[in-house]
Amino acid sequence: MSDTSPDALCENADATDAKSGPELSIVLPTFNERENVPLVVEALRKCLEGVNWEVIVVDDNSPDGTAECAKTIGQVDPRVRVIRRIGRRGLSGACIEGMLASSAKYVAVMDADLQHDENLLPRMLQDLRSQDYDIVIASRHVEGGEVGNGLSAVREWGSNLANSLARRFLQVDLSDPMSGFFMLRRDAFEDLAPSLSAQGFKIMLDIVATAKGSLRIKELPFVFRERLHGESKLDTLVTMDYLGLLLAKLFHDRLSIRFLMFSFVGATGVIVHLAVLKTLLATGLAQFSAAQLVATFVAMTSNFFLNNRLTYRDRRLKGSAWVRGLFTFYLVCSFGVLANVGVAELIYAQQPLWWLAGAAGALMGAVWNYVASKTLTWRQS
Ligand code: GDD
Ligand code: MN
């Protein structure tokens, strides 16, 4: 009698009328890449001849209709699959979901904008098949690799800083920890997946850091191409996002990256406030109370601006929503001051320690501002 245990049934599934599944899944995260997706698929067809591959496009409901376009290709080429995510944004999360949807032996992640050289894929696959490596990473910084004209000078500086930080704090020694182009064994990925952070965009670094040295890594050089169509979704400020990931990993994911960033912005606000106050007083432009009021508004405005660019970059407000957001932020912060002073006074009355009362008040204000602005100013649409 044949074995009917679930394990045996999984292993001996009847597939007489099916072709065998793909050996390699290529995950393409997309946001507004309608013009690029058909070109990438065409490029993959050419360079992966003889390989049993599939593409998994993970699209965050791009307004330009990327998902629709990819599904149209899928109608004629079943190797092209699409996951359309609604109400969500984020590169890492998209990559994780794409890889989890694969049942192939190997998975790769690659930009869908032709900046990553697809001709590297066959070599990456070969290195994994050889069983000498668990992950192959395309690097712009090993011998032979080049950033080309694809990355600005500021980005490159940020990228170098990121490399040394990763080495120092995460004990990850990669020549290009920011690379978003890599291939690995799916079973290795599945083991790590529950511990990965879906926030941010540094998925490869997260995988390598989480594996804590258990992955055998190979780096291959490549030249980062320039974008032909569309625009980059990651700007210089992604460096902040990266610092957030470093901190979150250092604290074993027990801290919210968003709150950390919000607090960091709050700290810059204190500096802005004092600088404006000092300038107004020193130049005699205003008396203390007027100067203090102006400084408060300048600091709130700069906090709003930075939070909109950094903390809530994925929900960035623009146009009239920006103006509305600014006024709700003023409102939120005004109550934040009340919460701050109220708590500080309460504590000071019990325990007249100025630093304890001051710090508790500031923390209360920060938490209030964070929670209230999250629901009022940058509410998820
Ligand atoms: N699903 C989804 N959701 N995809 C996204 C999102 C998102 O929120 N944001 C970006 N993408 C897609 C883009 O459509 C593109 O295919 C890929 O992710 C990379 O985004 P780009 O906007 O092209 O990034 P880049 O070229 O500026 O950044 C490159 O360098 C970084 C390191 O400096 C990429 O190679 C990154 O992967 C790399 O980390
Ligand atoms: Mn790109």
UniProtKB/TrEMBL annotation:
<comment type="similarity">
    <text>Belongs to the glycosyltransferase 2 family.</text>
</comment>
<keyword id="KW-0472">Membrane</keyword>
<feature type="transmembrane region" description="Helical">
    <location>
        <begin position="353"/>
        <end position="371"/>
    </location>
</feature>
<dbReference type="InterPro" id="IPR001173">
    <property type="entry name" value="Glyco_trans_2-like"/>
</dbReference>
<dbReference type="Pfam" id="PF04138">
    <property type="entry name" value="GtrA_DPMS_TM"/>
</dbReference>
<dbReference type="InterPro" id="IPR007267">
    <property type="entry name" value="GtrA_DPMS_TM"/>
</dbReference>
<keyword id="KW-0328">Glycosyltransferase</keyword>
<dbReference type="InterPro" id="IPR039528">
    <property type="entry name" value="DPM1-like"/>
</dbReference>
<dbReference type="GO" id="GO:0016020">
    <property type="term" value="C:membrane"/>
</dbReference>
<keyword id="KW-1133">Transmembrane helix</keyword>
<dbReference type="InterPro" id="IPR029044">
    <property type="entry name" value="Nucleotide-diphossugar_trans"/>
</dbReference>
<dbReference type="GO" id="GO:0000271">
    <property type="term" value="P:polysaccharide biosynthetic process"/>
</dbReference>
<feature type="transmembrane region" description="Helical">
    <location>
        <begin position="327"/>
        <end position="347"/>
    </location>
</feature>
<dbReference type="GO" id="GO:0004582">
    <property type="term" value="F:dolichyl-phosphate beta-D-mannosyltransferase activity"/>
</dbReference>
<dbReference type="GO" id="GO:0009247">
    <property type="term" value="P:glycolipid biosynthetic process"/>
</dbReference>
<protein>
    <submittedName>
        <fullName>Dolichol monophosphate mannose synthase</fullName>
    </submittedName>
</protein>
<feature type="domain" description="GtrA/DPMS transmembrane">
    <location>
        <begin position="262"/>
        <end position="378"/>
    </location>
</feature>
<keyword id="KW-0812">Transmembrane</keyword>
<feature type="transmembrane region" description="Helical">
    <location>
        <begin position="288"/>
        <end position="306"/>
    </location>
</feature>
<dbReference type="Pfam" id="PF00535">
    <property type="entry name" value="Glycos_transf_2"/>
</dbReference>
<feature type="transmembrane region" description="Helical">
    <location>
        <begin position="255"/>
        <end position="276"/>
    </location>
</feature>
<feature type="domain" description="Glycosyltransferase 2-like">
    <location>
        <begin position="25"/>
        <end position="192"/>
    </location>
</feature>
<keyword id="KW-0808">Transferase</keyword>
